[in-house]
Amino acid sequence: MHPVLKLLMQRMALGILLLIASSILIFCGTLVLPGDVAQAVLGQSATPEALANLRHDLGLDQSAVQRYFHWVNGILHGDFGKALSNGADISHSISLRLGNTLFLASWAAAISIPLAITLGILSVRFRNRWPDRVISIFALATTSVPEFILAYLVMFVVAVKWRWLPPVSLINDTMSVGEKLQATALPVLVLVLVVLAHMMRMTRAAILNVMESAYIETAVLKGLTGFQVILSHALPNVIAPIANVVILNLAYLVVGVVAVEVVFVYPGMGQYLVDHVSKRDVPVVQATGLIFSSVYILLNTMADLIGIISNPRLRNPK
Amino acid sequence: MNAHLLEARGLRIGATLQRPGEKPRTFEIVHGVDFTLEKGKVLGLIGESGAGKSTIGLASLNYGRGPVEITGGEMKVNGKNVRDLSPRALRELRGRVVTYVSQSAAASFNPSLRLMQQVTEACVRHDVCSRAEAQERALDLFARLKLPLSIGDRYPHQVSGGQLQRVMTAMALCPRPDLVVFDEPTTALDVTTQIDVLAAIKQTIAHMGVGALYITHDLAVVAQMADHIMVLRDGQMVETGPTEQILNAPRERYTRALISERHPLAMEKSATGLTPLLSLRDVSATYPGIRFDILKKVSLDVLPGQTLAIVGESGSGKSTTARAITGLMPPRAGEIFFEGERLPDRIADRSRDQLRKLQLVHQMADVAMNPRHTVAKLIGRPLEYFFGLKGREKHERVLELLHDVELGEEFLHRYPAELSGGQKQRVCIARCLAAKPKLIICDEVTSALDPLVANGILKLLLNLQAREGVSYLFITHDLAVVKAMADSIAVMLRGEVVRYGQKSRVLSAPFDPYTELLLNSVPETRPGWLEETLNNRRLETADQC
Description:
Chain A is mainly alpha-helical. Chain A has helices spanning about 5-30, 35-40, 50-60, 65-75, 90-125, 130-145, 145-160, 175-210, 215-220, 225-235, 240-255, 260-265, 270-280, 280-310, 310-315. Chain A is about 75% helix and about 0% strand. Helix content of chain B is about 35%, strand content about 25%.
C-alpha cells in the first residue's frame, strides 16, 4: 500500500477513536452534574410516583452503560432525542441551527482566508517596511479587542450611527441568499476581523521561517522577483502550517461564535446552546457538545491530511 | 576594446551589524581585491574558511548573505558595475548572465518542486527560450553530465548527493550564462563521486565555453579545474597567476605553506604479541524500522597504544560502528570486548569506569559543547564526575589539560563561541583526556577544519598517543588522514569490512577493486591528473569488455 494512503487511514482511524472518546466524555460529564433531571422538570412538589414514571420514560432507571449505548444508537439513526424543556425534536432544531451557523461560518471563511493569506504574503514581501507595519498594527488591534466589544462597536457604528444595516441578524427560510447575506453582513464582518489577524500573522511567520533557506537563496540568484520567490518557492513548502492555522480558525468560526451570535441575536448553534444551558436541558447540551467536538475532530483531521498530502517526501517515497 | 567578462577593482565587501542599543558597526570582510577573468576561462579562488572566497563569488551577482554587501570598489560583469544596476537589470543579470552553483545541492533545491521545473525555471522566467526548448536544453545537459534523462521528473530527496550536484550544474548552465560561480561544488561529496562530478563539470563548461569562478579550499581540486588561481587569505589577495606557476613556482610564503602542507606521518607500530584493547566480534546492527543490517558481522581489533582507522564513504557504516562501540546503538548480534571483558551492549548497563575509559570526540566540535559553559567548566565537568576533583585541585588539572592540547591559561574563561574551529576541537580533546581514557573514538575530527588547522590537530593527537599510550579508533573518509595516523586500517563498504590489516599491507598491492578505486580517486595537485585517471579507468573497463 502507498505510504500516504496508510498514513491517511491511520489519521482517519485516530479521528474516529477520538470521536468515540469525546462522546463518552460528554455523556459522563452530564452524569456528574448535580441534581435530578426528573426533579428539575417536575419541580419540588412532584409526587414520588410521578418522578418514577418520568424517570422510566426518560430511561433514567437504566444503567449508565445502557443509556450510553441507547443514546449513541439514536444518534447513529439521526435521533438526538427530545428537549426536556419544550419536548421539541432536537435533531430538527439542530438541523435548522447548524445550517445557519455553517452559513455564517462559510461566508466569514470565504472572505477571511484568502484575505489573510494575501495580507500575510504582502507583509513578507514588504517585511519591516510600511505595508508590513500597517498590516501588523491593524491585525494586533483587532485581536486585542474582545469579540463581543468588537461586535457592539461595529453594530454601533454601522447600524446605529450610519443606519446602513439592521443591528440584529434575523433570518428565516423564506429569505433569498442575497437577503440573507445582507442580514448577516455585520456578524460576518466581526468574525472576519476576529480570525483574520491570527491567520495572517501565522502565514507571515510560516513563510518567513523558510525565507532563510538555501533554496530561497537559489531562487533569488536566479533573478526571480520578490513575489515569484514567495509564491513559487516559499509557499509550496508552508502549506502544512498554513492549513493548520486556517483550519483551527475554521473550527473556531463554527464552535466559538457563541458571543457574536448572542450579540446579533442570530439563530445559530451558539444561541441554541446558551439558551438550553440556562434551562439545564441536558440532552440538548449533549447533542450540541457532540456536534461541536465532531466538527473540531473532522477539521483537525483534515489539517493533518493536508499536511501529509502536501509533503513531497511522503507523497513520493524514494 | 572588449570588456573583461569579470573584473574586480579594489573590491571591498563588508557587513553592517547593529545590536539593539548600540551604534551600527561595519566589519570589512574583503579588503580591496583586484582580478580579471576572460570569457571561457576558469579562475580558481583558493583559501581557508573566512578568506572571503564565497563572499567574492556572490559579489559577482551583487548578492550578500544577510547584512553583507559591497562597500567599495568595482565589480564589473561584461564591463558594467553590478552595483550600478537597477533592480530590474540586476534580476536580468542573475540567473541569465551569471549563475551560481552552491556547496550543498541538497539544501539548495526546493524540496517541493520537481527537478526539471527548477532546472528550466531561469530560462523560462527570463524569456531566454520557451519551456519546451528549455527542457530540451536540460535533457542535453543531463546527458552531458551523465545523468539519467528521467531525473527531471524526480524530487530532490529522490536523488543522490552526487547526482544532485550535477543537476545543480545543469541548472546553472541551462540559460547558457556567460559566467558560472562554482562555490565548493564537490566538497560535500565522497572522493569516488567527486572525481566523476569534477570531470563532468570540466568537460561541460569547456564544451559550452562559459567562464567560471571556481571556489574551493582544496588545492588538488582547483589544480584540475582552473586556468588561473588566486590565493586569498583573510579577505586579501596573497598572489595570483596561471595554475602551473602557482603550483610550481609560488612566490609567497603562505602559498608555499598551502602547497607543501604535508600530513604528519606516524611510523607503523608492530602488532605482534599484543592483546587487543577493544575487540568487535561479528557485530551486526540496524536501525529501528530498517529490515536489513546496517552493519554486517563486523570484526575488528584495536591494540593498546595504537590507532585503527576505519575508512569508508558516507553510508558505509563507519559511524554506526562507533555508535555500537559507545553503546549508543546496541548491536543486534555479536559481542564487544574491552580489556578482555564483555562490554554490556547498552550504555545504561555499563559501569562508570567502563564509560570513563572509552571516550568520543565528535566531528562537530561546536555542537558537542554547551554554548553557555566556559572552557574551564567544560573541561572541569568530567574531572568532577569521574574523579571527584574540586577547587584548586580541579583548577590545576584543567590548566594541565589545556597545556596538553597546546592552549594557554587565557582560554579558561572563554565560551565556545569565542573559539576558532581548531581551538574548539582542542577543547573537546582536552575534555576527553580529562577522563584519562584508554581508547578515544575520533569521528571525523578534522573534516570540518581547514587543512593547516587539521594538520595541527593530527600532530597533537600523535604526540598525545606517544606520551600517554592512548589508543585511537579513527573514523574518517579522508585517505590522507588515514595514511598519516593509522597503524592498522579497515576499509568499509555498505556495512562490511572489505579490507583489514596493518597499514603497510592494506595500502600496498594487490588491491581489491574498491580499495583501489578509493585510493586513486584522491585528487592530486598535479594538473592533468583528472584526465589521466579517468583515461586509465576507461582503458581498464575497455580491457575487461
